[in-house]
């Protein structure tokens, strides 16, 4: 049996709609773990097809009743994989990004240090991997919500000026 056709809107829009419906039905937000499970179930019909999706899902669960309160990060793949962890890099450039992240990630990074490290990891991935893009989207997630930094296009001349300063 063929999987159902994927709608023209993005997976993010569909997931956001389902999360909002959950909130309206139950009067509370779904946990990040629950959202990761929902996304995995949404992608399950596409297992073994030409559609391959790998995504990171992060959030801050603030509900006191939940065992999983605080920040959480999940990796979800259309092959059925769903993992919780502290650090993920997704895509064909991941090994290059991990080489930067493994050397620079530590507890206690300031927000600016973390953003700089993320930029460098994406830059290295795009520089070495022909299939990676060259833009970085940075989201900062706290217990008070999330903010999105402006999308940046990573050019070699910009990165070298940032790295040298």
TrEMBL record:
GO terms for cellular component: cytoplasm; nucleus; proteasome core complex. It is an enzyme of class 3 (hydrolase). It catalyses: Cleavage of peptide bonds with very broad specificity. One of its GO terms (biological process) is proteolysis involved in protein catabolic process. Keywords: Cytoplasm, Hydrolase, Protease, Proteasome, Threonine protease. The keyword Membrane does not apply. It holds the Pfam family Proteasome. Its EC number is 3.4.25.1. It is found in: Nucleus. InterPro entries: Ntn_hydrolases_N, Pept_T1A_subB, Proteasome_sua/b, Proteasome_suB-type. One of its GO terms (molecular function) is threonine-type endopeptidase activity. The proteasome is a multicatalytic proteinase complex which is characterized by its ability to cleave peptides with Arg, Phe, Tyr, Leu, and Glu adjacent to the leaving group at neutral or slightly basic pH. The proteasome has an ATP-dependent proteolytic activity. This subunit is involved in antigen processing to generate class I binding peptides. This is proteasome endopeptidase complex. It comes from Hucho hucho.
């Amino acid at each position: 049996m063929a999987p159902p056709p994927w709608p023209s809107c993005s997976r993010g829009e569909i997931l956001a709609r389902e999360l909002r419906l959950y909130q309206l039905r139950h009067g509370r937000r779904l946990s990040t773990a629950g959202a990761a499970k929902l996304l995995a179930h949404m992608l399950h019909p596409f297992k073994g097809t030409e559609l391959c999706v790998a995504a990171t899902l992060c959030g801050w669960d603030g509900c006191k009743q939940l065992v999983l309160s605080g920040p959480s990060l999940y990796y979800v793949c259309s092959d059925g994989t769903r993992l919780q962890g502290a650090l993920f890099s997704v895509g064909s450039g991941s090994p290059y990004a991990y080489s930067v992240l493994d050397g620079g990630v530590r507890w206690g990074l300031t927000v600016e240090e973390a953003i700089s490290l993320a930029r460098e990891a994406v830059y290295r991935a795009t520089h070495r991997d022909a299939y990676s893009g060259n833009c970085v989207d940075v989201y900062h997630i706290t217990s008070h919500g999330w903010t999105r930094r402006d999308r940046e296009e990573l050019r070699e001349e910009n990165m070298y000026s940032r790295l040298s300063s």
